[in-house]
Amino acid sequence: MSLSFHWFLPTSGDSRGLVVGGHGTPMSGDRPASLHYLNQIAAASETNGFEAVLTPTGSWCEDAWLTTAMLAGTTESLKFLVALRPGLVSPTLAAQMAGTFQRHSNGRLLLNVVTGGEPAEQAAFGDFADKETRYARTGEFLHVVKSLWNSHEPFSFAGEHIRVENALLSNHPDPVPPVFFGGSSAPAGPVAAKYADTYLTWGEPVLAVSRKLEWIRGLAVDHGRKLDYGLRIHVITRDTSEEAWAVADKLLAGIDPADIERVQAALGKSESEGQRRMSELHNGSVDRLEIAPNLWAGVGLVRGGAGTALVGSHAEVAERLLEYAKAGISQFVLSGYPHLEEAYWFGEGVLPILERKGVWQHPNHRPAPPAAIPFAGASSS
């Protein structure tokens, strides 16, 4: 078992409290997402052994491509899991952008393909396709992108939603960036099975996650493919369980009930099956938010998307992560408030435990050089 851990770039802003909104609703933190601050988070992620940072896409955050391109020059080994929406950019241009990013970052690009589940937000970007169409278009988009990455001859494709003629890249990405993809609804499964390298899901109880992975595994077998699986979840980890839950309680106490009502009303209009499942974990209520051991649904009261957090001592959080790993998860995309400080809490508290268990290794640690041996008879003067 070899696990990979990734962190999150809060490009809408950060805070010591829960940042309200996201996924089609306005979102901003009281720590602005300045390039200076995002560089601090990138440096903390690299130092603590996170392989990559996820950069979101949407009307509520900064552009993922431009932001990560700026950060690539200030980091050395950190990779960038860049989110993009297939309906908003040409597949040929996306394939070209990926190749450019790989060359200028020395191969540090990963792609998170986001179909989009908020009709109002999609419309704001000029996309009026329905949900079924968006997923079908995503499949065609990924077919074109992956074909261009591997083709040295002009490539043409005429699908139901996408058409390109004699497309050819002058420079191919090296390496080809792995594709991360998430989706819980019926039309998402076949797209994931056919085109994703890593299937991402949000943090539900282990049994629910296991069932979802079995669904995708079965579909992937039909295409002769084997996927990796990833979990997108928040973390609150401290030296003791009591300290961690005190932090969760403080975050909950800082929530304005009016924000819960406003955000839940907006998220109730979402077409995302994953968002519906997140919302059902708490049903807009502050009662009984620990829905499984150390799994807290409080984040989802005011935040769209990933709405759960693992809360507990470093040892408890490590144990819960291992339970997900036994279900098949090998990639963990994490976040916490504030993202700078929480990267250190997790990196210095949980990752050493997993390293001692032999399931994780710091990607930047190199063996120390052998001690120098002086020449025989050398003078000590």
Give your account of this protein's structure:
The structure is a single chain. The chain is an alpha/beta fold. Helix content is 40%, strand content 17%. Helix 3 crosses helix 5 (131-150) and helix 5 (131-150) packs parallel to helix 6. The chain is globular.
CATH topology group of one domain: TIM Barrel
Beta-strand content:
15-25%
The total count of helices amounts to 13
What Rg is obtained from the alpha carbons, in whole angstroms? 22 Å
Secondary-structure blueprint of this entry?
Blueprint: E1 4-8, H1 35-48, E2 52-55, H2 64-72, E3 79-84, H3 91-105, E4 109-113, H4 119-124, H5 131-150, E5 155-158, E6 163-167, E7 179-182, H6 188-195, E8 198-202, H7 206-222, E9 228-238, H8 241-253, H9 257-267, H10 273-280, E10 290-292, E11 295-296, E12 309-313, H11 314-327, E13 331-335, H12 339-349, H13 351-356
Parallel strand pairs: 1-2, 1-13, 2-3, 3-4, 4-7, 7-8, 8-9, 9-12, 9-13
Antiparallel strand pairs: 5-6, 10-11, 11-12
Helix pairs in contact: 1-12, 3-5, 5-6, 6-7
Task: Summarize the structure in short.
With 381 residues, this protein is α/β, with parallel strands linked by helices. The protein has helices at residues 35-48, 64-72, 91-105, 119-124, 131-150, 188-195, 206-222, 241-253, 257-267, 273-280, 314-327, 339-349, 351-356, and strands at residues 4-8, 52-55, 79-84, 109-113, 155-158, 163-167, 179-182, 198-202, 228-238, 290-292, 295-296, 309-313, 331-335. It has a domain at 4-233 and 321-348: Alpha-Beta Barrel (TIM Barrel).
